[in-house]
């Protein structure tokens, strides 16, 4: 297996120049471990069993070899990627697009339930090279013969264990049985439960295995915390942390060279002395940046893994994993940049909901529980700024020659009949105008609440051993809210279709979807009471079996009320200045 300490480059892989060019432009420096382990096998045409979770770079691990083998002159599906959710299908399609930017006329089509058939059919007729789809919709097309897979060369099962959990495994097998027998298969899964192994055994031919192994390591001098939040809020989260953490030097890890520059610029714009450290910089420039950090003319370095290899600066008190690392080894290496020379170190890890598995893997590898951190509130920031201001006043009194200013203040007081307090208040305001001591309210970073709570419960369960999974977890005895949807028995709907569509469209975990009851013309389903409004909005536009479900609240049989009457939960948030 490729270790993070022995980098080799994308150009060592036998990949066509236009694709390498795109990878370079996207900003990847070296293949991630799962890429290094998978790409050579896939290029050589082997079947592959890959054990890797989201965040490891697994998408490029299969996308690059697929693109490398595409015959652009043949406008027919040559690769099919099956993904458990619409969200993932779209992400994968986007990733393909970015690596295919120099392949003229390359076409990829995401297909998933809930999306109108017409545009899918139109695009299929026009001809596409790669399809990324959820199993249900792919099956639909195969049944209707609107999708012809006779020219298929590669099939990828992405997040196979998730597809299993969501009840799609039979559909997946059905699709596998309806593809040409000689196609190459890559199966990626974060875990390898027996059911997945069985699928692999039945359909894969002498598969090669690629696995991200978790080595254990000790990192005792370092206190570790994580923050669970969406990537859209990472910058705000980081800025809050910077406001209140007592840090000396800080090293922030991101995935790409571009991100090192972008984030460093954003931090500079917010008044921090920050610089990028990446593999594109000359050795001399890199040394200069590190030197500035040592000499305290710089406080923050934003780095990629490669560029920060071996970095040894005593004053790094904090390591922030802004982008989660690909594997546990990289994590251990990253946080080992702090806590040096007998000092204490702090490590902070940003985790997106989709990356939770990696957090678990890191905890196992380091044999340490990572504490969840509370983001500093608006109040915390205000208190901290006041404290800093007081310190600044004291140090200025101690260190500066102020007799001229004392006389000036006395003069203003005499002339305007003002108390020293009034004058000091006005001057305090002026001094802090660009960085108000009571900052404007920040964004509401609490939308992950539900997700976080659910997950904490899961973690709690893991601690106390398995417990019976009962009605409470299914969400209907638990204050779940009942909704009515306009598909029923007469439409031939099964609960599985409803669970699949809702999980897909609303991004609600299957286990949070409660009791489903089928009537002739409609059905009822219990959903989490605190489901975000955005999820409901998406569900309103969802289709099942060719019918729009027009989800409505169900109130004890009374006329269902429109969702529009629900109050908006999320408020707008003004940006603070400075
Ligand atoms: P994935 O595990 O495929 O969801 O990828 C997670 C993230 O890692 C995505 O944002 C990718 O753009 C990024 N990524 C994938 N491969 C690399 C690489 N070799 N270097 C840097 N970033 C990468």
Describe it for me?
This protein has 578 residues and is of the alpha/beta class. The protein folds into 4 domains: 10-211, P-loop containing nucleotide triphosphate hydrolases (Rossmann fold), CATH 3.40.50; 222-376, Rossmann fold (3-Layer(aba) Sandwich); 379-432, no CATH class; 471-565, RRM (RNA recognition motif) domain (Alpha-Beta Plaits, 2-Layer Sandwich), CATH 3.30.70.330. The chain contains 21 helices and 20 strands. Strands 3-4-2-5-6-1-7 form a 7-stranded parallel β-sheet, with helices on both faces. Helix 13 links the parallel strand 12 and strand 13 (345-351). Helix 3 crosses helix 4. The longest helix has 22 residues, at 378-399. The chain is globular and about 90 Å long. The protein starts with 16 loop residues before the first helix and ends in a 25-residue tail after the last strand. Residues 1-6, 461-478 and 556-578 have low confidence and may be disordered. The site of adenosine monophosphate has 13 residues, from helix 3.
In brief, what are we looking at here?
Helix content is 41%, strand content 15%.
Please tell me the total number of domains.
4
The CATH topology annotation of the largest domain reads as Rossmann fold
Mind summarizing the main beta sheet?
7 strands, parallel
User: How many β-strand runs?
Assistant: 20
Oligomerization status of the protein chains: single chain
Largest sheet: spatial strand order: 3-4-2-5-6-1-7
Indicate the low-confidence ranges by residue numbers. 1-6, 461-478, 556-578
User: What structural category characterises the helix and strand content?
Assistant: alpha/beta
| Helical stretch tally | 21
Bound molecules: adenosine monophosphate
- The overall average pLDDT, rounded, is 84
């Amino acid at each position: 297996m490729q270790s993070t300490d022995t980098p080799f480059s994308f150009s060592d892989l036998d990949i066509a120049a236009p694709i390498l060019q795109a990878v370079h432009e996207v900003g990847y420096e070296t293949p991630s471990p799962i890429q290094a382990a998978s790409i050579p096998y896939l290029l050589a045409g082997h079947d592959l069993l890959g054990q890797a979770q989201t965040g490891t770079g697994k998408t490029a691990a299969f996308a690059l070899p697929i693109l490398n083998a595409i015959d652009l002159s043949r406008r027919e599906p040559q690769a099919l990627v099956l993904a458990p959710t619409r969200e993932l299908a779209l992400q994968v399609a986007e990733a393909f697009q970015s690596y295919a930017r120099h392949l003229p006329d390359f076409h990829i089509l995401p297909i998933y339930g809930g999306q109108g058939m017409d545009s899918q059919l139109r695009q299929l007729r026009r001809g596409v090279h790669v399809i990324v789809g959820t199993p249900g919709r792919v099956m639909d097309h195969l049944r209707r013969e609107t999708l012809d897979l006779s020219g298929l060369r590669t099939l990828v099962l992405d997040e196979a264990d998730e597809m299993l959990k969501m009840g799609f495994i039979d559909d997946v097998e059905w699709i596998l049985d309806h593809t040409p027998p000689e196609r190459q298969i890559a199966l990626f899964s974060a875990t390898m439960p027996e059911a997945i192994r069985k699928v692999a055994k039945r359909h894969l031919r002498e598969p090669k295995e690629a696995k991200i192994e978790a080595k254990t390591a000790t990192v005792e001098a370092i206190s570790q915390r994580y923050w669970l939040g969406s990537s859209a809020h990472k910058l705000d989260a980081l800025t809050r942390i910077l406001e209140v953490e007592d840090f000396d030097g800080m090293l922030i890890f991101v995935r790409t060279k571009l991100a090192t520059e972008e984030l460093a610029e954003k931090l500079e714009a917010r008044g921090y002395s920050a610089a990028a450290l990446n593999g594109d910089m000359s050795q001399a420039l890199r040394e200069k940046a590190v030197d500035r950090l040592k000499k305290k003319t710089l406080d923050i370095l934003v780095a990629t893994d490669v560029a920060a290899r071996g970095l040894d600066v005593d004053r790094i008190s904090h390591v922030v994993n802004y982008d989660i690392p690909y594997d546990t080894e990289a994590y251990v290496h990253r946080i080992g940049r702090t806590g040096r020379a007998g000092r204490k170190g702090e490590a902070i890890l940003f985790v997106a909901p989709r990356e939770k598995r990696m957090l678990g893997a890191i905890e196992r590898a380091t044999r340490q529980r990572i504490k969840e951190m509370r983001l500093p509130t608006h109040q915390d920031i205000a208190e901290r700024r006041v404290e800093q201001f007081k310190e600044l006043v004291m140090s200025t009194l101690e260190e500066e020659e102020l007799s001229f200013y004392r006389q000036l203040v006395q003069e203003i007081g005499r002339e305007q009949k003002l108390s020293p307090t009034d004058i000091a208040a006005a001057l305090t305001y002026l001094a802090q105008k660009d960085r108000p001591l009571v900052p404007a309210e920040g964004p509401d970073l609490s939308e992950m609440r539900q997700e976080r709570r659910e997950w904490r419960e899961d973690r709690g369960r893991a601690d106390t051993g398995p417990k019976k999974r009962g009605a409470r977890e299914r969400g209907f005895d638990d204050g779940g809210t009942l909704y009515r949807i306009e598909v029923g028995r007469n439409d031939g709907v099964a609960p599985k279709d409803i669970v699949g569509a809702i999980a897909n469209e609303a991004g609600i975990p299957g286990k949070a979807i409660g009791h489903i009851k089928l009537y002739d013309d409609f059905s009822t389903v219990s959903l989490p009471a605190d489901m975000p409004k955005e999820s409901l909005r998406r569900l309103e536009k969802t289709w099942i079996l060719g019918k729009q479900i027009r989800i409505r609240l169900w109130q004890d049989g009374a006329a269902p009320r429109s969702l529009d009457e629900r109050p908006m939960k999320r408020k707008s948030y003004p940006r603070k200045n400075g």
